[in-house]
Amino acid sequence: MSETTTGKPPVVTPLRVVIALCLIAPFVAMLWVGSYAKVDPLLAGIPFFYWYQMLWVLVSTLLTVIAYKLWQRDQRARRVREGGEER
Amino acid sequence: MKDVNVVALCVFVFFFLAVTVMGFLAAKWRKAENENSLDEWGLGGRSFGTWVTWFLLGGDLYTAYTFVAVPAAIYAAGAAGFFAVPYTILVYPLIFTFLPRLWSVSHKHGYVTTSDFVRGRFGSKGLSLAVAVTGILATMPYIALQLVGIQAVLDVMGVGGGEDTHWFIKDLPLLIAFGVLAAYTYSSGLRAPALIAFVKDTLIYIVIAVAIIYIPIKLGGFDAIFDAANEKFTANKVGGLVPAEAGQWTYATLALGSALALFMYPHSITATLSSKSREVIRRNTTILPLYSLMLGLLALLGFMAIAAGIKVQNGQLAIPQLFEDMFPAWFAGIAFAAIGIGALVPAAIMSIAAANLFTRNIYKDFIKPEATPEQETKVSKLVSLLVKVGALVFVLTMDKTVAINFQLLGGIWILQTFPALVGGLFTRWFHRWALLAGWAVGMAYGTIAAYNVSTPKQAHFAGSSAEIPGIGEIGYIGLTAFLLNLAVTVVLTFVLKALKAPEGVDETAPSDYTADAGDAGVRPLPKVGADTH
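Output (structure tokens, whole complex):
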């Protein structure tokens, strides 16, 4: 991996923006406590405050999985490109 | 004195003996050729795959104290205690971002601790010492709290003895549990907690699954449970089912601050560095949230304790007491075993992590620079014993609140190492002296602010939140201290750069941060007998 490679892929790509959004979303959702500090609607008797946050455990997991898959794709693409240039 | 719950005790002892045997046998598990190196004893040969790492990290982060304290907080104050859930949600995007870089650079340069990295990156033994000392100070009370967790279980089973029992009889069960833990950690290193974590988590998942279905049925459903809780909070005028407007800043800052702090703890880093590749870490961020889900369900047990009419003076006993009252004796025994073993796993990893810090960043850097790997391992083993004895003395001689206060302080302190560690992983812009100054300011502010928190019952260290200067809302002290720390670091970096203060030598290269197992220069993985993914 030489440092003088020409035509280096840009650092910020649409793919990477999506990855960043996936990773930032949980912060926005969880730190905005006012958006979920309420009792109704109940779910099976559990106040909204609790089941909403538990739901976010699943949502954030899904987002992390998406970020992981996209990151793998990003890295593969870069490796192919670098490999091609070296040869 | 309470009657001893014989059936529960027998089940507890059975599981305890089983994990003891496993702990000692662990030394032979995936044994490498060179046992006398710190990589082997202290990092399990850096060989763990996705699943072992998952169990190890889960066993490490979700401790007996968590199982007892989170529902206890809900039991006492309601919604405010639930911050543990958003906290663990936020942890995973964070580690997804920075831990793989730490893994790579550590593998490339053979770093065992975070302080090793800080020293290599900034060429500053002073900064590395600050990180090491903070890590050790923050870990000690954490180990002490694990022992408090075991004590709570023993108390409820009736083997803790009453207040009038002779201290030796009273503490004998804890001393035995402790002695066994110390012995197998000494002989097997990180392999022991890695193997025992399987048992611990299996038990915990079974107990939670049963508790979350069985107890609500017995108590008349979640409606009844939350109604009872609401009644209690309204009657006592303390807490509530949702955080009040004023408590929302506290809730959010506690969640964020704790999430930032978690992977600064030496024991979480130890478990991370023991994994065999960069991918293992990223893959783990997608399966670790299963523990968050479990934690959320567990937290609800606090409400169930209220609905079940559990009345305990010491909130820590609420959940063990709930199990005792609700479950048949044999299953209560399994639940207690889960908590007890849940204390042993993290206590072992924490003592190993603290010992590694001492050996690498105090002993080797300042006392005996020419120490061989064999000597390092020997020192680490001995220090792991000392750390545990220290924690034991702490628990036996001081009031429990002291351990809790120090753990609270530890969280605030460990967060102050964030700029040096995570900052260092992404940029070398920060000046080493500025980082040290920022750390000192954060430590001082955090300690003083925590000292000044008082309630009518407790004059000092009564909580971890205080007014945020300039904003006026109540927030987590650790996070305020962290922002102060960051501000000082940034300003001083500008000043020091303008003054052309000497920068330390950086022994790392940009490509080190993305290297993976198998790349050139990354040390070959140790040969292991059986490979388990």
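The longest strand of chain B covers residues 465-467.
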